[in-house]
Amino acid sequence: MENPFKAVYTALENRILRNADPRKLKVVAEANSSSKNYSGQLDYESVTMQSKNLAEWKSAIQLATDPENPDRSSLRTLYENLLLDNHLASVIDSRILFCQRSTFKIVSESGEENEELSKLFERTWFEELVRLILMARFQGTTLIELFDVDEMGELLEVNEIPLGYFNPKKGIITKTPGEDKGWPYKDGTMANYYLQVGKDKDLGMLAQVAPIVLAKKLGIGAWLDFVEKYGVPPLFITTDREDDNRLNQLFEAAQSFKSNHFMVGRGNEKFEVPSISSNNPSGAFDPLVERANSEISKRFLGGTGLTDEKGFVGSVEIQFKLAKDRFESDKLMIKNVMNKLVFIRLIKLSPVYSALSNHYFEWDNAEIRTSKETAELVNILGNQFEIDPEWVEQQTGVPILGQKASPNPSKGGEQPNQKDLELKKKVK
Questions:
Q1: Ranges assigned E (strand) in 330-376
Q2: CB–CB of 349/155 below 8 Å?
Q3: Which residues, in sequence order, are bridge partners of residue 106?
């Protein structure tokens, strides 16, 4: 016997599907079909941490700029190796984190903030999107995938198509690095899900600082070799014995010298540990590392004042102004990409973002004061102006219960004026 509830459920389901918004049905279909996004179909390779040299840098640049079939897979491997340098990674983080920590808002054409739309971007994917957009300045042309949505229709995450897996000149994504055929991402329906940041030939600043970083790595490597060879001074043994038995005894004693810290000799045998501390080996390596770090800081931040351990207040302030020009340039880049490219794709991706059609992304440049600064401002202005206690409570987070009476009232008291009465009434 057929289940009667099944027929009722089927009829109800068909009715809901007929009356449902086709855009929402599309979102659900895309969310349940994870095999269509190209990032999930790539044949990823394991990351190799082999050392790089200038010859490999030249080869990677040559392959990436090939006019017929550019291949950036070698460039990606080179960049991954360069970013192991902590100083380089730190100055790049300084550029990216400044934008990620800056406040923003979504405004209408009249300039009014839409708080509901602004909250849609208070997500982890937006932090990652800001990072990937700015990475185009450092690694060159960057391809971002905006595809996966959750059950509510919101963007779930953004993915990067790694360098080498896409060809900007041909506008294709390849399953394996270096292929000459693949999936088009600039044309067709899938163009709505992929965002290219940067021009087709951009290689980024990492291509320019690569020689400096490689020289630094070479210097540190030579320093490590020096420490390995001379960090523990060698032991020299001199003996006039030539019989194999005694030579073997001395050899075994030398092998155990580090753990025993003493040796016993015979006759004219000598045991010497030369001193090499007077050579000051760090003087041969530290200047190279410091010069490399200085060059990297100048390229990415405009100076060394923000990364040096010591600096004068005046010079650091000047360096911050130079760095701030770069920070503001990064923010302008984010704003333009969001308004010209990202919003268009989000609107097509899901009806959740349909209201963005007449709104714009803006950075909120309003001055942010600390509670202490606000209290000092209230103390200064309060001598001449009446200040709203509700605003003070909101800005400082300190509950205001009322206004204190004057600690030294004059004898007989002075009648309060109308403004004082209104203020007391307001704070009660």
A1: 359-363
A2: yes
A3: 361
Record the pTM: 0.71
Q: Is the pLDDT of residue 282 over 70?
A: no
Which structure tokens are listed for 382? 């309060």
d(CA 39, CA 158) in angstroms, rounded, equals 10
Q: Does residue 158 contact residue 125 with C-beta atoms inside 8 Å?
A: yes
CA-to-CA separations, 195 to 126, 146, 391, in angstroms, rounded: 14, 8, 43
Beta strands in 148-291 (DSSP E): 158-161, 166-167, 172-173, 183-184, 194-197, 236-238, 270-272
Closest CA to 213 of 99, 90, 100, 121: 90
CB 197 within 8 A of CB 130: no
pLDDT tens column, 320-365 = 777 888 899 999 999 999 999 999 999 999 999 999 999 999 998 7
SS3 236: strand
| Helix, strand, coil fractions of the chain, as percent rounded to 5 | 55, 10, 35
